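Slack export, channel: ligand-projects

TW: morning all. Re-posting the request from yesterday since it got buried. We need the structure predicted with the small molecule present, not the apo form. The ligand is NDP; the SMILES is in the block with the sequence. No rush, but it would help planning for next week.
GE: picking it up
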Amino acid sequence: MIKTEINYGDIYLVPKRTVVDSRKECDTSVQFGPRRFDMPVYPANMKSVVDEETCEYFARRGWFYTMHRFNVDATRFTADMQEKGLFSSISVGVNEDTDEQLRELKAAGLTPEYITLDIANGWCVKAERMIKKVKDLFPESFLIGGNIATGDAARDLESWGVDAVKAGIAGGRVCITKNKTGFHRPMVSTVLDCAQAVSIPVIADGGISEHGDLAKAIACGATMIMAGSLFAGYDESAGQIIEVDGKHLKEYFGSASEHNKGAYKNVEGKRIYVEYKGSIERLFIELKEDLQSSVSYSGGNTLAALRDAEMIYVNRY
Ligand SMILES: NC(=O)C1=CN([C@@H]2O[C@H](COP(=O)(O)OP(=O)(O)OC[C@H]3O[C@@H](n4cnc5c(N)ncnc54)[C@H](OP(=O)(O)O)[C@@H]3O)[C@@H](O)[C@H]2O)C=CC1
Ligand SMILES: Nc1nc2c(ncn2[C@@H]2O[C@H](COP(=O)(O)O)[C@@H](O)[C@H]2O)c(=O)[nH]1
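GE: finished. pasting the full token output, ligand included:
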């Protein structure tokens, strides 16, 4: 028996009676862990998307961020952010280098406010061990575990002690996991399944190609949305700008790409060049305007109303 599963492009939300006089009345803020953020979307913890400046920029704007984990000194990063009066949100892996990083942080007396366990399939014994270790060493930190793609995985990670799960396997723009391994799950099915399984927040990770996908992810039960390609083309993102035939492009590469790994070993990501779009300021405004409009169509004035939106499947063929 083969199940039919769906992605953001396969569904729409049914409009309800608007109860606000202006879209400006719609509140897009979200409580996530110990803090409240202006918007429920943040840039992927990838080397071509965020660097220290990007993280600082997002934190100062009241948006969430997570620094990537590739050749980053988590102790220095945490000290820098906290000295500036900002929160620290770091990523960790599952190997010995992470053990060392955690020991250094502890020895320096530092506690990052947020820690993200970032591995391709977080539903594994190595992740379980690391989750328990992080929770033991940093019980005050808000721990995000991932990635996962099923309700069963979400339940396991919740029982291992994470405070939120990050859901989305092989749906990213620079992902080649589905081509190389045959494994993938479309995002609507992923988020619905995970959000129905657990009481902790779910982060919908990857596959955002339209601004309206944010509202769809929330309607499926996501509290937060992580996006890579959405943020990759701007001055404030970390990738290099190149010029081809007089046109400016920005690099965007997968964390499991040869470019990021420095070797062709277990490669499940690629490098692409996206349109260079200048300052991210306009995107910040437009994402907020569009989400406020989504909230107004959902018949409420906060993101909670999107949770009750009716979803319809649209057969496009
Ligand atoms: N969201 C997504 O769909 C995906 C995201 N990514 C991203 O790419 C980055 C690097 O990922 P990747 O190189 O895959 O490895 P990870 O960094 O996820 O791997 C960490 C460790 O887990 C082991 N490991 C990884 N995959 C498996 C597996 N399938 N079975 C058993 N052990 C495993 C690795 O050992 P060993 O190498 O020896 O197997 C390694 O020791 C991460 O940042 C991840 O988030 C990658 C793929 C999919
Ligand atoms: N299969 C792979 N997935 C990857 C890789 N690097 C990152 N990612 C995932 O993609 C999302 C971003 O997706 P986008 O559609 O918003 O661009 C990111 O958060 C990771 O979960 C990779 O090398 N292979």
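GE: first-pass observations. The first helix runs from residue 52 to 60. The longest strand covers residues 142-148.
TW: perfect, thank you
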